[in-house]
Design brief:
Layout: E1 4-9, H1 21-24, H2 29-43, E2 46-51, H3 55-68, E3 72-76, H4 85-94, E4 98-102, E5 124-127, H5 132-143
Parallel strand pairs: 1-2, 1-3, 3-4, 4-5
Helix pairs in contact: 2-5, 3-4
Length: about 150
């Protein structure tokens, strides 16, 4: 049973609440992380949140998660979803199960956003459900048995 989850948010997600509110809504990343932490506590899961605008920092955090014994990763890689082979390889390399999430429905947006380099290796993906996707991913992770 999952006891520890790492929530990773990639580039520009620190701008939630002020960035393209018609696409991403008005909730900030701090709001989303606070709700996720409350949900994790109710589920009896330890949650660590991490955000970076730097690909290497995200990769380093994934590597550290392996050393820490993290059971599950929830990742919103932002634009790196569509471009980062390095991020994909880090997730595959540590072999920690993960769910990919996106606030917006990437399949209703520009064509270049329709391809995820992470999806084929993810347990699943939650797209287009807004901030609720984080809660749903956490509920799934809490019940996941590897």
């Amino acid at each position: 049973m999952t006891t520890s989850v790492l929530l990773i948010n990639g580039p520009n997600l620190n701008l939630l609440g002020s960035r393209e509110t018609s696409v991403y809504g008005s909730r900030t990343l701090a709001d989303i992380e606070k709700e996720a932490s409350e949900t994790a506590q109710k589920l009896g899961v330890s949650l660590t949140c991490f955000q970076s605008n730097h690909e290497g920092a995200l990769i380093d955090r994934i590597h550290a998660a392996f050393k820490e014994g993290v059971d599950f990763i929830i990742i919103n890689a932002g634009a790196l979803t569509h471009t980062s082979i390095g991020l994909r390889d880090a997730l595959v390399g540590v072999a920690i199960p993960f769910v990919e999430i996106h606030i917006s429905n990437i399949y209703q947006r520009e064509e270049f956003r329709h391809t995820s380099l992470l999806a084929a290796k993810a347990i699943g993906a939650i797209v287009g459900l807004g901030p609720a996707g984080y809660r749903l991913a956490l509920e799934f992770a809490a019940g996941y048995k590897n």
